[in-house]
Amino acid sequence: MKGRVLPLLGIAAFGLPLALPAVASAHPVGDGTRYEARLAPVATNRVDAAGTASVTLSGNKATITVNANRLLDSAPHAQHIHIKGSGECPAADAARNHNGHKAISTTDGLPAYGKIGTSLTTKGDTSPNSALAVDRFPSTGSFHYTRTITVTPDVARQIRANNAVIVVHGIDYNHNGRYDSVLGASELDPKLPQEATAPALCGPLNAMHNMNGR
């Protein structure tokens, strides 16, 4: 799948060119509370990567930053704010058998990090409808993403309740430099390989400080 994408049931297309901007332009929020996450590899998914994320929230306005390193290069990496799970990342015991291999798929991780609340696209729509709009997600192995958007009141509440998790998707389970069918088909779209949608990096958001000093 390297260098091309596959159709996504009307949500997006995995075959669009991958020469996409990894950075979304943004104007930082001047005040509000900052939430931070350390993005660690998802257990069992054979990811040798790391990252950080932050959300500065003022009302429903959020300035979001994601930094990731050493993911699969020249491949799209969907990323989201997940909400209403247990507010954590899945442990190794969440792994199931996928085509004869133990790994954690997106749906395996749902009890821990919850459903998608916001899609962290580089431009355009940020709702769950853009969950797999990979022509609008970073497509390099290392990237710096920042964007200011308006999140829904529900997402804002979950962030403030420390029940929001940043997840970056897309793994190279067998380390062959591309998304393939080693883990079988994705539950999100059987036309896609599981590697393309499986969670790679994950981190719960936690409040750091209030930028206004309140």
Protein model, in words:
By secondary structure, this protein is mainly beta. It is 7% helix and 35% strand. Strands 3, 4, 5, 6, 9, 10, 11, 12 and 13 form a 9-stranded antiparallel beta sheet that branches. A two-stranded antiparallel ribbon has the order 1-2. The chain has a two-stranded antiparallel ribbon with strand order 7-8. Strand 4 and strand 5 (61-69) form a beta hairpin. It starts with 6 loop residues before the first strand and ends with a strand. Mean pLDDT is 87; it is low at 1-30 and 210-214.
What is the secondary structure topology, with strand pairs?
Layout: E1 7-8, E2 12-13, E3 33-41, E4 50-58, E5 61-69, E6 79-84, E7 96-98, E8 101-103, H1 110-113, E9 114-119, E10 143-150, H2 153-160, E11 164-169, H3 194-197, E12 199-204, E13 206-210
Antiparallel strand pairs: 1-2, 3-4, 3-12, 3-13, 4-5, 5-10, 6-9, 6-11, 7-8, 11-12
